[in-house]
Amino acid sequence: MKPIVRKYILRPGLYIQKFLMRLITYPLHLGSADYYPPIGYFSLPMPYPLVRRISFSASTRLKYWTAIAKTYKPFQPFYKVQTKESYLNSVGITKESNYYVNFCELYEDGCTVIDNFLGEDDHFLVKKAFESNVDAKLGSNSIMVGVPVKEDKLNALLHKNISIFEKIIFGKYIRQQKYILSALLVKNGRSPFKESQKWHTDRFIPCFKMFYYPDPVETNPLEYYEGSHLVDEQYLKNALLGASKDVSNINTDEDYDFSNYHKRTFYVKGNSLVIAATNGFHRRLAEDKDGIRKFITFHYYFAFTRFDLLKNYIFYKFQKNNQG
């Protein structure tokens, strides 16, 4: 009886619910998986095949969003419209500022790591949250666990500590989000989720993620190709390839051009924050060393959206026309 209920009542009901929510929120996502311009529509869930048929070509999307994104002041160092020093100085980050070196590294290389990120008491609270909510869920049948943070105090603590970076990176205040405590288990010499171990970019215009690691990373670390975030001719060719076909069918070592990029692997200490421009090439290292990697990922595809870029572009054009 239960399989029948699940197949003919629960699944259709969930499908209808998801379809209605997608329909209601369409002006926000415009057919993509979230609110930020996607590389391609081939990775969307099956309930939305129409989007693939009516979407613009990859090259059109690439040109369109590149033209819009490069007018956004915080993103201009990626396009070399202005130098990183010029932008940082304009937002009050000088050589005397605490994280000046990290911001310079982020804009120049595409990634940076901040050791001893949280204070001792805050670090202790985060570790206790993992012990209470995550550790017990990792077992023989659970190789990946994600538990939303329910405590308002802990969410506020995390937001307070990352907000200084968000304000500089995005040029605006980013609201507090619902963060997730995650853990990846590697056992019996088998690293799961092979797709995330392929080199990939999240988007073809500047985008960011932050990764907080409460404990040392000793297996399956983040890897990043430094320099691959800068938007030049080499980048655009790689982006067009990634936007034109399913990345699962790309042999990254042969198809993408990684020349002039430098590989960096993040075996970081406990209590470290990694900030990465994920429009650059990154992956989870294909490593079969047993262990647990605990982390919190801060992503912004619902908090900083295509409409932030579009509003800025309209204002930029308005100003330019008035000056002309």
Provide tags for this entry.
alpha+beta; 41% helix; 324 residues; three-stranded antiparallel beta sheet; globular; six-stranded antiparallel beta sheet; single chain
What does this structure look like?
- The structure is a single chain.
- By secondary structure, the chain is α+β, with helices and mostly antiparallel strands.
- Helix content is 41%, strand content 15%.
- The strands form 2 sheets. The chain has a 6-stranded antiparallel sheet with strand order 1-7-4-9-3-2. Strands 6-5-8 form a 3-stranded antiparallel sheet, with no helix packed on it.
- Residues 43-53 have low confidence and may be disordered.
Number of helices: 12
Q: What's the N-to-C terminus distance? A: 72 Å
Q: List the strand order in the largest sheet.
A: 1-7-4-9-3-2
Computed structural class:
alpha+beta
Percent strand: 15-25%
Number of strands: 9
The percent of residues in helical segments reads 40-55%
Using only CA atoms, what is the Rg?
21 Å
Shape: globular
Whole-number mean pLDDT: 84
Low-confidence stretches: 43-53
Strand count, sense and barrel status of the largest sheet are:
6 strands, antiparallel
Order of helices and strands: HHHHHHHEHEHEEEHHEEEEH
